[in-house]
Amino acid sequence: MNTLGYLSAMSAASLASKPHGLALLLGWRRVLTSLGVALALGLLLSPGWSSGLGSLLLRAFALGLLAMLVFGVFEQWPRRLPAWLARWVLQVFGVALAMPLGTWVIYAWSTPAGAPPFWTDADRLEGFGTLSVVGLLFAPWIALGALVRQKDAFARHQALAFELERSELERQALDARLHLMQAQVAPHFLFNTLANVQALVETGSPQAPALLRSLIAYLRAAVPRLHDAGSSFEQELQLVRAYLELMHMRMPDRLQFNLQAEADVLHLHCPPMSLLTLVENAVRHGIDPSEEGGTIELRVQRRGERCLVCVDDSGVGLGQAGGGLGTGLAMLRERLRLSFGETVQLRVVARSPRGTRAELDLPAREAAG
Fold this sequence. Notes:
The protein is 63% helix and 11% strand. It has helices spanning 3-17, 22-25, 28-45, 53-76, 87-109, 122-202, 208-222, 233-250, 274-287, 317-320, 326-340; strands spanning 255-261, 294-303, 306-313, 345-350, 356-363.
């Protein structure tokens, strides 16, 4: 769209987006700008003005305020224009016409009673002509400049509105994807745990009923949190402890665990099920395949504006796990990316002499609620 076409669209849209009435006509920025331009033109004309600087500035200020009022009146009246008449054209020509008419009124009004008309006085006629010509030369261009500035402001406003709308749509899309990813965690974890219960039942282990009761109690507490948008480290650590106690009942001689968290991180935000996913991954791919079993250590520390989560296991390690760390970590990476963008890091590295370390580095944020 060219500039003139854009001015037409902008002028029409501005009626709905701008203040109206006196708030628009007498805006302090408009008044100051009009007086400033009038002062500059008055000082420019003052060297050749014979009747004094004061009278010149009064006339210049009056014409400047008149141009401002005409510009503002036609900016909002009439509310509807014929299709062939653009509002910006009405404003520019209205300002241009107001200059000679306004100058005529000023000179006629300032003529003393009984004095001859101003056009019979050569000096006054020259002053009238000078102000009229200067007004006709400068006022329409100043009006066009104001319209261009409005166009730029309108374009920035529209761009900001579009950006806000796009950000809101992106946020809604990310929320939907995040809820979908969190919903996928529930069956993933549940099926893995039920498989462990099934193994105990099939082998006739006397621990199966106790493990099943613990699992039911755990799921009653855990499942309602799967769709929560926010959770704290304290809540997530409770889930992790319950899960590890379940796993310890299944393999009491092969799994030991230790959970450590600094007091000042317990109230901070933790993505739901993230710690559980890291620990479950360590059990499934580290401890379970190892004949000797091993130990899982979870530590949560705060480092300035960051939180660092470390999950160490002394299991078979990345090599014997075949590099396949399951779908849990893949889903966790996606969930973290949706929640934190590029401000979060998840690393999985091998430990020496054996085992795996998972490190989660994320911003320290207060938990909601």
